[in-house]
Design a protein that fits this description.
With 374 residues, the chain is of the alpha/beta class. 43% of the residues lie in helices and 18% in strands. Helix 1 links the parallel strand 1 and strand 2.
């Protein structure tokens, strides 16, 4: 089976969706599927990239595009659509003709539009995946446009129950709306010795809190920095990522010994830092589509403090961490509570790895394969 993957973002751009799509491509290649990925060069992460990348059973084409505008346009859906659609739209029909793809798998609204448009033209099966919550209006042009896109797909794969309900409310038949779940390589993301990294960062005998994600306001970075001022000197907050708020994080790290800025970490390095942390924090102030960081941290046996928002409560429960309403005060209370109660912390750690093994193994790719082959 030949599958065309359409996505705005792909590695080496950094993010949870990008990591999932990399896992998906490699997973499909293992299942003897032929995969072609059509995407853009990294638009948010400053990193080296290849125009054309080939591997066993997969090819990745990254279209040259003007970077640096994503964060400026993301708040204006029309401008974002005009910025991100043309490249995928123009090149997709040529890929379909050359590669004879049997299935088009679009990720997100923009790639979904391109997929269903050309899918109808070439009479191809189209699968769409949602990776976030859209909060569509109950009526109007945006509602109708989204309804046409998702309603035109053979199957819509939703990352959470909230997303399932959101797509059904558009009027998409329930029979065509299915759940899928991310997975992690539980051999890579596992419990590892961390004495060396703790020594390098001078975090021995400290209570370590790790944040991994884009440095944007909706990820709760400012709330976390404010909370650092309320935390005891025995706490260290490690922040890994890049984005528009990087300078604010760098300044905070210079002004406070409690904050250590790690910049963006390679995916291969993440397990070491998850293991070095006593707890991972996901203080989002918007509705997360799921939260891949949660899956990775749990697979490493590290508990989570996370926002009780969006689909995060579907990704974890309080057997492996704490769910909070994000404010600096609540962040502080959650961290200090786990720092003081070592018995509770050890119980959460004990549960974390088994929780991930049960829910987030590579077996989850079966839901996507089923949609392809249905």
């Amino acid at each position: 089976m030949n599958v065309l993957q359409l996505t705005v973002h792909f590695s080496p751009n950094v993010g949870g969706v990008e990591t999932h799509l990399t896992d998906l491509v490699y997973g499909l290649a293992k299942k003897k599927k032929t995969v072609f990925v059509l995407t853009y060069r990294p638009l948010m992460t400053k990193v080296k990239w290849q125009l054309l990348q080939k591997g066993p059973s997969y090819t990745i084409l990254r279209l040259p595009w003007i970077p640096g505008f994503f964060y400026a346009f993301v708040k204006n859906p029309i401008v974002e659509f005009l910025y991100l659609t043309p490249g995928l739209f123009i090149v997709t029909p040529f890929i379909l003709l050359l590669k004879k793809s049997e299935v088009i798998h679009g990720h997100g609204l923009i790639a979904g539009f391109v997929g269903v448009f050309w899918g109808k033209f070439f009479e191809k099966k189209v699968i769409l995946s949602t990776h976030s919550l859209y909060h569509f209006p109950s009526s109007g042009m945006y509602h109708d446009f989204a309804k046409w896109i998702f309603g035109s797909a053979s199957t819509v794969l939703c990352l959470s129950n909230q997303s399932v309900n959101e797509i059904k409310k558009l009027g998409v038949p329930a029979s065509r709306v299915k759940r899928f779940t991310y997975w992690v390589d539980t051999n890579q993301f596992s419990q590892q010795p961390v004495e060396k990294i703790k020594k390098e960062l001078s975090i021995h005998n400290k209570f370590v809190v790790l944040f991994v994600g884009r440095l944007v306001a909706i990820k709760g970075i400012r709330e976390l920095i404010t909370a650092s001022n309320l935390l005891p000197e025995s706490v260290r907050i490690l922040i890994a990522g890049d984005g528009p708020l990087q300078k604010e994080v760098e300044t905070a790290a210079k002004e406070s010994k409690k904050i250590i800025f790690l910049h963006a970490l390679k995916n291969t390095s993440l397990p070491l830092f998850y293991n070095a942390a006593d707890v991972v924090i996901v203080p989002s102030t918007h509705d997360e589509g799921f939260g891949r960081v949660i899956l990775e941290a749990l697979a490493c046996g590290t508990p989570i403090i996370a926002a009780r928002r969006g689909a995060i409560p579907e990704a974890m429960d309080e057997s492996v961490g704490k769910l909070i309403t994000v404010t600096p005060k609540n962040i502080t209370q959650a961290i200090t509570s786990l720092q003081k109660n070592k018995i509770t912390l050890q119980k959460l750690k004990k549960n974390a790895r088994s929780y991930a093994l049960k829910r987030y193994s590579e077996k989850n790719i079966a839901d996507i394969l089923q949609a392809y082959e249905k």
